[in-house]
Write a structure and sequence with these properties.
Layout: H1 5-21, H2 23-31, H3 36-62, E1 65-66, E2 69-70, H4 71-89, H5 93-110, H6 120-135
Antiparallel strand pairs: 1-2
Helix pairs in contact: 1-2, 2-5, 3-4
Biased composition (Low complexity): 96-108
Biased composition (Basic and acidic residues): 119-136
Organism: Gordonia asplenii
């Protein structure tokens, strides 16, 4: 269902307010979208997966056993598993930068209150409610 004109305007206002309030966080969120970096990461994961597959099959062919267990095949399986996780999670390079940017900006705004850290969704909801109340 498409957004109404009023909802589109509110969404644009929220987006522009986010860019004005915290441009570093907004740019890091924009960078996290699927782009050329994630394609390269997936290609690397496929290459590592193939290496793991070669180790898995090669471990059976070479028949090197440690305690009755084919150790090279186990290493190949673990490499394949790691490659799958890398493809699914994207390596986590951009997410740590986004977390540190949001954490640094959140600590500046808290004013050293010393209270427990709140979730990002709670802070965003509170900001939205404040802006919504100011408009009315």
């Amino acid at each position: 269902m498409p957004l109404s004109e009023h909802e589109q305007r509110m969404l644009e206002q929220i987006e522009s307010a986010l860019y004005a309030e915290d441009p570093k966080f907004a740019s890091s969120v924009k960078r996290r979208r699927i782009g050329p970096g994630s394609g390269r990461r997936r290609l690397q994961a496929v290459a590592i997966f193939v290496i793991g597959l070669v180790l898995l099959v090669g471990g059976v062919a070479v028949d090197v056993k440690l305690g009755g267990f084919p150790i090279i095949s186990l290493i190949g399986f673990l490499v394949m598993f790691g490659a799958c996780l890398m493809a699914l999670w994207g390596g986590g390079g951009g997410s740590t930068a986004a977390k540190s940017a949001s954490g640094a900006s959140g600590s500046r705004r808290s004013g050293g209150s010393g209270g427990p850290r709140r979730k990002l969704s709670e802070r965003m909801e509170e900001r939205f409610n404040r802006r919504f109340d100011q408009e009315q």
